[in-house]
Amino acid sequence: MREVVIRKPDDFHLHLRDGDLLKLVAPVAAKHFARALVMPNLDPPVVTMADALNYRERILQSLPGMLSFTPLMTLYLTDNTDAGDVERAIEENVIRAVKLYPAGATTNARHGVTDYTGIGDVLRVLSGAGTPLCVHGEDPDPRTDIFDREGVFITGPLQRIRDAHPDLKIVLEHITTREAVAYVRAHRTRTAATITAHHLVLNRNDILAGGIRPHNYCLPVAKREEHRQTLMAAAVSGDACFFLGTDSAPHDRIRKESSCGCAGIFTSPVTMPLLAGLFEDAGALDRLEAFVAGFGSEFYGLEPNSGTIRLHKTGPYQPPGLIRDQVHTVVVFDPGHPLTWQVET
Ligand code: NCD
Ligand code: ZN
């Protein structure tokens, strides 16, 4: 039996939702992760410092006493965001990032940004404070092919933001393409990217070939196999500009298994076992710790976590299938092969 002990991981992109669903999924994330950057795309979204303080309180209340977990809060950038409020939220350590959703790009993104020339004041505040702008990097124009949305966003709006704000720290979230990997490497002094576990195993055939698999559908949508391989190489490269953000995004089963199923894959329970197997197969288990518990906190200017988790190799086992309470049933990501590592908790 092989064992690996690593620093307790951080998840730099997590959807915790609200209400009963928050109570169901927050303890699951807190089992394996010490901290998570919590996405603000609630309905209505987390727009102001007051919203973030209230949401943080609801998250902490959703966790049983024995679980120690720090939610790192974000604000949802709109065309009308008040730069002064963002500045106060940073000064008072309420938020660690601001999230840019191009309007309409993904789940609950309709309040997102429509006019990039209008967000200059907020971006100047972020630059001055060294606080990252997290970007959902997809062009939402319905005329843009869904498989090209990331590339179109990078060469268009992202490049313009970068040119106008050379000192701004930018995290390109949940990257899915060779072009994104190359862009981040080329701009690495102030740019980083999160990579999810599911984008390391899925290509677009896993969504569409042999039947539609709604539980493999998320945004950005998984791309061709060659892109998946590039992402895998980036994740195990030991380059500090790539780190884990799971984008674990729970939705009710009924909303996924539908004639218009929504985007988002719930990965929190399987991310760490899955990553251990993937890094082992790549001969890079020694680089897992930096990917999940080093490079992200470094980019965000946070101390690394002090606790550890122990992963051990087991016989092959099936992922948990689903989690549920009286109201919600959420299907857990199935990578399509048995898992072989377990986290000791
Ligand atoms: C996320 C969600 O459901 O909130 N969905 C997804 O497919 N990733 C939103 C997002 O991060 O795009
Ligand atoms: Zn997300």
Describe the model.
The chain is an alpha/beta fold and 345 residues long. Helices cover 34% and strands 18% of the residues. The protein has an eight-stranded parallel beta sheet. The protein is globular. Bound molecules: N-carbamoyl-L-aspartate and zinc ion. N-carbamoyl-L-aspartate binds at residues 15, 41, 106-107, 136, 218-219, 247, 249, 263-264.
Order of SSEs: EEHEHEHEHEHEHEHHHEHHHHEEEE
**Termini separation:** 17 Å
Number of helices: 13
Q: State the shape.
A: globular
Largest beta sheet, briefly? 8 strands, parallel
Radius of gyration computed on alpha carbons = 19 Å
Widest β-sheet, arrangement of strands: 2-3-4-5-6-7-8-9
* Binned strand content: 15-25%
The helix fraction, in percent, is 25-40%
Bound molecules: N-carbamoyl-L-aspartate, zinc ion
Mean pLDDT: 97
The number of distinct β-strands equals 13
Which structural category do the helix and sheet elements fall into?
Answer: alpha/beta
Unreliable sequence segments: none
Topology of helices and strands:
Layout: E1 3-7, E2 10-14, H1 19-32, E3 35-38, H2 49-61, E4 70-76, H3 83-91, E5 95-100, H4 120-129, E6 133-135, H5 149-164, E7 170-172, H6 178-186, E8 191-195, H7 198-201, H8 205-208, H9 225-235, E9 242-244, H10 253-256, H11 271-281, H12 288-293, H13 295-300, E10 308-317, E11 322-324, E12 329-331, E13 339-344
Parallel strand pairs: 2-3, 3-4, 4-5, 5-6, 6-7, 7-8, 8-9
Antiparallel strand pairs: 1-10, 10-13, 11-12
The structure holds N-carbamoyl-L-aspartate and zinc ion.
N-carbamoyl-L-aspartate binds next to loops.
